[in-house]
Write a structure and sequence with these properties.
The protein is built from 10 helices and 9 strands. By secondary structure, it is of the alpha/beta class. It binds ligand C2E and magnesium ion (3 copies).
Length: about 280
Amino acid sequence: EAKNAGRGVAKYFSSELQSEQEDRVRLESDLRAAIASKQFHLLYQPLVSAKDQKLIGFEALIRWNHPTRGLVPPPVFIPIAEECGLMMEIGQWVIEEACRTVANWPEPITVAVNVSPKQIQMPSLPQLVSQALARHKVPGNRLELEVTEGIFLGNNSATLDIMQRLRQLGVGIALDDFGTGYSSIGYLNKAVFHKLKIDGSFVREAGTREENVAIIKSIVQLAKSFRMSVTAEGVETAEDFERMRDLGVDTIQGYLFGRPLSYERANQMVMGMSRKSA
Ligand code: C2E
Ligand code: MG
Ligand code: MG
Ligand code: MG
């Protein structure tokens, strides 16, 4: 057998693939247990207004604290959850938790949650969101959903209809990671988005790549013409901040103004803010 090198290579690859496959199967079954055993939590990253750097809200970001692996990053487990049909359940937990949190915070602080493509395509989503809002006595305008451009690869008219129903609850919908994916300006015209979030990679590269400044300028113009607000993600330095503010971006998010924080730390930030304004 050893004299056939080709076979050895094939065998090597197939056993590597096999262990990757096994790893995935394990993660999948661990994911099924994770909700019930409370292995998820949310972190809250601050968003500030570009004009006066005032806190206006937070983006909730999920964390999975796996019993043996430690923290598993969302880009690793979210796709698995999507494929094995667990995303609705996890996503619903996120919405519930975000509503519980924002109910404790003063107006006009908002909390944004990320919603996966499969989740936004569920016709039951508006009703589930509306029930979560009611349970925590939160008006719809305190909650935002963030979706990525990938949602437009599915059944568009059904998805647009679901988004319209969410907007009727007062819930905001932001188009996340704008500029990195399948961007179709046509969808901006449907009045379902209240906000565009410019991907952090553009924001950070704008310092060294002049063409990114031009792209951001045109994204801001586009957003304004559709009456959407614009958030710059991934703002890490004072230069990034000033550049984005001067380009007309409304809201800033990034390590410069805060990393994703525990509920307790985020709460301190909110309470500090209301003491100052009182
Ligand atoms: P996203 O929604 O675009 O979230 C922003 C990501 O950028 C977060 O990564 C955040 O920690 C990171 N970030 C924020 N500021 C900075 C910065 O200044 N510099 C850099 N380098 N990074 C920054 P995170 O928390 O690992 O989340 C990654 C992605 O996972 C999110 O991207 C979102 O697409 C997804 N995700 C997170 N939570 C959820 C969730 O509850 N549900 C769903 N469906 N997806 C989620
Ligand atoms: Mg997001
Ligand atoms: Mg983003
Ligand atoms: Mg992202």
